[in-house]
């Protein structure tokens, strides 16, 4: 059995840091000096990101974030999640300055002031099995399409800022007394639960450590999770025990595709899928076809070919998803 050589770290912590801009250069330098790649976000409200490197390098980074003098212990106790891979899933190291580490654009959502009640993975099944609990998947639609918890509600959002609209349109604090929510690693639920408490919802629960923590800790034969969990790196998806899943990205529209999706007649490897097979996506398909040709040439030469920037891919998926929903609304009005 091959021992994975790459350790992947996902971390976040909400903490007030008005000096966040001063941390960018030393954080980037520390990571680059150790061959760590990925993306870390810094904002006045904290830190968030996913990076990968050798196990020793990642352990050094975690220790430095916790105890390094430059941080003054502010990141000690951050929520961290580890996974492993045989190859480096990222192509470069980026430290970005942002207004928020999770963009919701709702000042009343302040996880430093209030958040919902954390629920351990071992207790999650009992909670979401109750009739008086509304279970909400706070992720975006293309993520939900790959997998979700049984009976969970899909807000059908293309970006997290749309979650506010879903709450105002579909939920009522007087009617929906108990809310249970989940996301990939837990960070979106920190913001979402804080927002909902600010809107007057009485009891708001969220899965501690998110789906990834659940898939790692809960045995598959006792799991209420169906499908795979989308992740923002070249693994595309993971399943129980955080094993790499079967999903792949469409190179034209960047939608994640299941094996069944790739069996459809309109799927062409590296060129198109059923999401983008229409004429309106001809230019994207042409670009994808050229990219696929370059990949095949690189493989024939025995060279590696760099994959796409995953966060750019996420933005393109969001725009494509939004366009599809708008087209659906137009068709429904005409009908």
UniProtKB/TrEMBL annotation:
Q: What class of enzyme is it?
A: oxidoreductase
Membrane-spanning segments:
none
Q: Which InterPro entries match?
A: Rhodanese-like_dom (IPR001763), Rhodanese-like_dom_sf (IPR036873), TrhO (IPR020936), TRHO_N (IPR040503)
Alphabetical list of Pfam families matching this protein: Rhodanese, UPF0176_N
Catalyses: uridine(34) in tRNA + AH2 + O2 = 5-hydroxyuridine(34) in tRNA + A + H2O
Q: What range(s) does the Rhodanese domain occupy?
A: 129-223
Which segments carry the region annotation Disordered? 304-335
The organism sits in which domain of life?
A: Bacteria
Enzyme Commission no: 1.14.-.-
For molecular function, the Gene Ontology terms on record are: oxidoreductase activity, acting on paired donors, with incorporation or reduction of molecular oxygen
Q: Provide this UniProt record's keywords sorted from A to Z.
A: Oxidoreductase, tRNA processing
Record flagged with keyword DNA-binding: no
A GO BP term here is: tRNA modification
Instruction: Output the Gene3D superfamilies linked to this UniProt entry.
Output: 3.30.70.100, Rhodanese-like domain
SMART domains documented for this protein: RHOD (SM00450)
**Which positions carry the signal peptide feature in this UniProt record?**
none
**Which PANTHER family does the entry link to?**
RHODANESE-LIKE DOMAIN-CONTAINING PROTEIN 7-RELATED, THIOSULFATE SULFURTRANSFERASE/RHODANESE-LIKE DOMAIN-CONTAINING PROTEIN 2
Q: What is the annotated role of this protein in its UniProt record?
A: Catalyzes oxygen-dependent 5-hydroxyuridine (ho5U) modification at position 34 in tRNAs.
Q: Which family does it belong to?
A: Belongs to the TrhO family.
- Please give the name of this protein: tRNA uridine(34) hydroxylase
Please report the organism this UniProt entry assigns to the protein: Pelagibacterium halotolerans (strain DSM 22347 / JCM 15775 / CGMCC 1.7692 / B2)
């Amino acid at each position: 059995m091959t021992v994975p050589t790459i350790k992947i770290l996902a971390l976040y912590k909400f903490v007030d840091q008005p000096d966040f801009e001063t941390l960018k250069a030393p954080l980037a330098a520390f990571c680059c000096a150790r061959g760590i790649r990925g993306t870390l976000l810094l904002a006045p409200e904290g830190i968030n990101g996913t990076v990968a490197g050798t196990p020793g390098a990642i352990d050094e980074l975690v220790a430095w974030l916790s105890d390094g003098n430059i941080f003054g212990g502010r990141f000690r106790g951050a929520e961290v999640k580890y996974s492993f891979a045989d190859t480096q899933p990222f192509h470069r190291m980026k430290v970005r300055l942002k207004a928020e580490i999770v963009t919701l654009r709702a000042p009343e959502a302040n996880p430093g002031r209030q958040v919902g009640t954390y629920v351990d993975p071992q207790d999650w099944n009992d909670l979401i099995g109750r009739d008086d609990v509304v279970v909400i998947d706070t992720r975006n639609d293309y993520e939900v399409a790959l997998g979700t918890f049984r009976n969970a509600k899909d807000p059908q959002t293309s970006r997290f800022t749309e979650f506010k609209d879903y709450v105002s349109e579909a939920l009522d604090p007087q009617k929906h007394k108990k809310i249970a929510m989940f996301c990939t690693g837990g960070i979106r639920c920190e913001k979402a639960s804080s927002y909902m408490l600010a809107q007057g919802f009485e009891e708001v629960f969220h899965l501690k450590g998110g789906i990834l923590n659940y898939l790692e800790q809960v045995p598959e034969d006792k799991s209420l999770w169906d499908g795979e969990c989308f992740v923002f790196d070249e693994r595309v998806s993971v399943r129980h025990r955080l094993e790499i899943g079967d999903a792949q990205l469409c190179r034209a529209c960047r939608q994640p595709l299941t094996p069944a999706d790739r069996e459809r007649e309109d799927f062409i490897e590296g060129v198109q899928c059923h999401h983008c097979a229409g004429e309106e996506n001809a230019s994207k398909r042409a670009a994808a076809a050229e990219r696929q040709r370059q990949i095949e040439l690189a493989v024939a030469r025995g060279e590696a070919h760099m994959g796409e920037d995953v966060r750019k891919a996420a933005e393109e998926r969001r725009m494509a998803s939004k366009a599809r929903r708008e087209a659906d609304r137009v068709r429904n009005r005409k009908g």
